Amino acid sequence: MILVSVMYPGGEHATFDEAYYLGTHIPLVRKRWTPMGLEEVHLVKGTGTPDGSPPPYRVMALLRFRSLQDFRAAAGAHGAEIFADIPKFTNVQPILQINEPLGQKTPL
Q1: What is the rounded radius of gyration, in angstroms, for the C-alpha atoms of the chain?
Q2: pLDDT digits (tens, 9 = 90+) for 14-62
Q3: Pair 71, 3: CB distance under 8 Å
Q4: DSSP code of 102?
Q5: Strand stretches in the chain, DSSP E
Q6: Pair 96, 72: CB distance under 8 Å
Q7: Numbers of helices and strands, H then E, in the chain
Q8: pTM of the model
Q9: Cα separation of 49 and 70, whole Å?
């Protein structure tokens, strides 16, 4: 299992159309990538930092795939279409990071 973080920077000049993102972009991602190993999508919106300053990322998508190979295959098959859609809802370049589990999941 891997988790792909797609982080959209915030900032004074950053724009982000949440309605388009939620209503068009994320459904496109799910439609194309779920059959290719996407298992879960978590979306979070940055609201601030502990010191009260603006969050460094406005929105983050956390995409869980069965494996790195599945993500690479999905990105190879449909990445161009999905990334071409990004300028329709934001003027920033997302930062992508591939993550793997660290230790065991434990309840609090």
Answers
A1: 15
A2: 999 999 999 999 999 999 999 999 999 999 999 999 999 999 999 999 9
A3: no
A4: -
A5: 2-9, 38-45, 57-65, 95-99
A6: no
A7: 3, 4
A8: 0.91
A9: 34
